[in-house]
Write a structure and sequence with these properties.
333 residues; alpha/beta; Rossmann fold; seven-stranded antiparallel beta sheet; 10 helices
Length: 333
């Protein structure tokens, strides 16, 4: 489990290059349900497609810097930019991003080594999936940084291994794209991004509820998940310190005592639909109706969280769902 959670992750495209039709047929069957992919029998055709995608989709993901604030001034702080990161769900091109390339070595128009050299400057992760190259060759291209994984087709669990490594490298791709931005965030407030227990929690929620993508959410701090149909679920992530702060604000604003008591006791997680995420006197209805029983993840510290529906006024862009992308991608083949 990685020690660093990326700021966001969404399904991407796996590019498979192999001039053996039988190998491609086996891969098509193995990856049909779990991994979106596009296949090529010629390396040069794959290079042209990849270049075309990267000319349309920034390889470093959603543009986070340089948003205008409400006064029309440019804002460049990491957290202010991240308030808009989830708007990326309206961009259908994000699913076409080629994050992992699966490359055979022995191909007629260009071999796998030449192909990997041609894409060496791109952030894509590369897997050499071949039956012909030897171990010394694998070590040499590892040492040159041209590939991240080497899998022999003839090994008994080759396809399962390939599927697992594709997922692992997709995660590594997003971690690398997020690393610089995470370094600018408050290390205390966003400590959950650096906790392996939270990484395991995120994976568990995706497995349990069918979430296929998520984005860091900043008000309240946490994650905004989307399932394959584009339905959002907000998961605030709070520490005992942040719940205590919520209770102090509620007390200062005249909230009912049962509200601050539940917050200080870490019994509930709030999602007050206010600009600053805190209780306010003009909040309609029962304050505790905006709270849910706290679930606990015990990592380097205790994190308290709950699942909430996302109110309509937060939905700035209609999600372009992964299910829709897969349907349209399949019909276009």
């Amino acid at each position: 489990m990685p020690a660093l959670l990326p700021l966001y992750r969404h399904p991407t495209m796996t590019v498979v290059i192999d001039d053996d039709p039988s190998s491609l047929a086996v891969l098509q069957q193995q990856l049909e349900q779990s991994i979106a992919r596009i296949t090529f029998t010629q390396g040069r055709a794959a290079l042209k497609w990849i270049a075309g995608i990267f000319s349309q989709v920034p390889p470093d993901g959603p543009p986070l810097a340089g948003f205008d604030n409400e006064c029309g001034e440019r804002e460049t702080t990491a957290e202010s930019d991240l308030e808009r990161i989830y708007h990326y769900v309206g961009d259908p091109q994000r699913f076409s991003l080629p994050t992992v390339l699966v490359v055979d070595y022995a191909m007629q128009d260009m071999d796998g080594l030449a192909f990997c050299e041609a894409v060496a400057e791109l952030p894509c992760k590369k897997i050499m999936f071949t039956s012909r190259a030897d171990a010394d060759f694998a070590v040499s291209i590892f040492n040159r940084g041209l590939i991240q994984r080497f899998i022999r087709k003839q090994q008994a669990d080759a396809l399962d291994h390939l599927e697992s490594e594709i997922d692992s490298l997709q995660q590594a791709y997003f971690v690398e794209q997020s690393r610089g931005q995470i370094a600018q965030l408050d290390a205390v407030v966003f400590s959950f991004l650096r906790d392996p227990a939270v990484a395991a929690m995120v994976k568990g929620l995706c497995d349990r509820y069918g979430f296929v993508e998520y984005y860091l959410f900043t008000n309240p701090h946490g994650f905004l998940f989307f399932d394959a149909e584009g339905t959002p679920t907000l998961v605030p992530m709070m520490s005992a310190r942040s719940l205590e702060w919520q209770a102090d604000v509620a007390d200062g604003c005249g909230a009912p005592p049962e509200v601050s008591s539940a917050l200080r006791g870490c019994r509930v997680v709030p999602f007050f639909h206010t600009d600053d995420g805190c209780w306010a006197p003009d909040l309609a209805g029962d304050p505790l109706a905006y709270c849910k029983p706290a679930q606990i993840t015990r990592g380097r510290e205790h994190y308290y969280w709950a699942l909430f529906d996302l109110p309509d006024h937060y939905r700035k862009r209609e999600p372009y769902s992964h299910a829709r992308f897969l349907r349209e991608h399949a019909s276009a083949r």
